[in-house]
Write a structure and sequence with these properties.
CATH architecture of chain A: Orthogonal Bundle
CATH superfamily of chain A: Cytochrome c-like domain
CATH class of chain A: Mainly Alpha
Order of helices and strands of chain A: HHHHHEEHH
CATH architecture of chain B: 3-Layer(aba) Sandwich
Radius of gyration of chain A: 19 Å
Number of domains of chain B: 1
Strand content of chain B: 25-35%
Number of domains of chain A: 1
CATH topology of chain A: Cytochrome Bc1 Complex, Chain D, domain 2
Structural class of chain A: mainly alpha
CATH topology of chain B: Glutaredoxin
CATH superfamily of chain B: Glutaredoxin
Number of strands of chain A: 2
Number of helices of chain B: 5
Helix content of chain A: 55-70%
Strand order of the largest sheet of chain A: 1-2
Order of helices and strands of chain B: HEEEEEHEHEHEEEEH
Structural class of chain B: alpha+beta
Strand content of chain A: under 5%
Helix content of chain B: 25-40%
Radius of gyration of chain B: 22 Å
Largest sheet of chain A: 2 strands, antiparallel
Largest interface: A-B, 11 and 15 residues
Distance between the termini of chain B: 47 Å
Oligomer: heterodimer
């Protein structure tokens, strides 16, 4: 019994140490993720779905992690300016247009990118508002 | 002895209540305005009966540019709603939920769907056709109706009791309510469910079998 108590106490200490060792970057990412989720529910979920599943052939899913990775620098432009030309996601062509969200701030878009690229089976880490600002300058 | 009798009485009452609550026939309410009218019987006498509001005759173009009327929904129950294809706010959620129901009753010929577009300027039948195909529901069970502004807006507000309007101040030009309206085989409104609210959509899914069972009797 005594051994068990000491053992579990030891494990608890180790767990606490590991937990508190999460670096500041991870915490910032978590904050972005949570805020991004609220923004997602407000602006994106209607069409893209609660699980990023999209809607038929009307709205592409957000689960194509390769597409996200390849087009990450374009996402801010997609959100800010909308999409008017057809795109191919998951091997499926989507022809409809996506509405623009010109009122969203860079920080909002950074949080959205963090949420989307770390949900729905994606795991692509942090994205900052500085990167968003850079991306917006290079919009095609 | 007295104690025993009262206990068993209570138990008996409880059992009866329990049983009756289980077997109780569930029936959906009939919604909308109603009127008491004098109806003539076959033998010449007359009696007062309740007349419920029903969906009037209509004639709209569907996604195949074919006219659809009440006859297409004869002996069917159907779910009606109002939307437009370029709507990015509540419509995708409504139709996502409706599609779930559509998939569930795929093999039941008695259940149909009728979506009216309120965008009379852009949503011509060809646009509706593309929308239906992309949503993956273009098999005739889900009809998409196109009509003049007057006819659609009138049937929305007066018959299905759904508020729709053109609003130039709205970002997409139209505002409307997201009700999914359940219509029975006598064309009466038997339920209205917020198509964007998962709980109400769940209730709709529970109510469809109730309505279907009612017509079986």
């Amino acid at each position: 019994m005594r051994k068990f108590l000491i053992g579990s106490l030891f494990l608890l200490v180790i767990a606490t140490i590991i937990y508190s060792c999460q670096d500041a970057g991870k915490i910032k990412q978590d904050v972005y993720y949570v805020n991004g989720r609220d923004l997602y529910i407000k602006h994106c979920q209607n069409c893209h779905g609660a699980n990023g599943e999209g809607l038929g052939k009307l709205t592409p899913p957000l689960t194509d992690t390769i597409f996200l990775k390849k087009n990450k620098q374009q996402i801010a432009c997609f959100i800010k300016n909308g999409i008017k030309s057809p795109i191919i996601v998951n091997g499926q062509m989507y022809e409809g247009s996506m509405p623009d969200f010109p009122t969203l701030a860079n920080i909002d878009m950074a949080q959205l990118v963090v949420y989307i690229s770390n949900s729905f089976g994606n795991k692509q880490g942090m994205y900052t508002q500085e990167e968003i600002a850079r991306d917006l300058k290079n919009c095609r | 002895m007295k104690f025993k009798l009262s206990t068993s009485l209570i138990l008996f009452t409880a059992a009866v209540m329990f049983l009756s609550s289980c077997t109780g026939d569930k029936k959906l309410p009939i919604l909308g305005p109603r009127a008491a009218e004098t109806v003539k019987n076959a033998d010449g006498t007359s009696h007062v009966d309740t007349v419920y509001q029903t969906i009037p005759d209509f004639r709209f173009l569907n996604q195949d540019s074919v006219y659809i009327t009440n006859d297409n929904f004869k002996d069917k129950i159907y779910i009606a709603d109002f939307f437009f294809t370029s709507c990015s706010t509540i419509c995708p959620t409504m139709h996502r939920n409706m599609k779930t129901i559509f998939e569930k009753y795929k093999d039941n010929p008695e259940v149909m769907y009728l979506s009216h577009t309120i965008d009379f300027k852009y949503d011509k039948p060809a646009v509706l056709k593309k929308y239906a195909q992309k949503l993956g529901v273009d098999n005739g069970k889900w009809q998409f109706a196109y009509g003049s502004k007057d006819s659609i807006y009138k049937i929305a507000e007066h018959s299905y009791l759904v508020a729709v309007m053109e609003d130039t101040t709205a970002r997409e030009g139209y505002v409307h309510q997201g009700w999914l309206v359940l219509i029975d085989k006598q064309k009466r409104i038997r339920g209205a469910y917020d198509g964007t609210n998962p709980k109400q959509v769940e209730q709709l899914m529970k109510d469809i079998p109730v309505l279907l069972a009612e017509d079986k009797k």
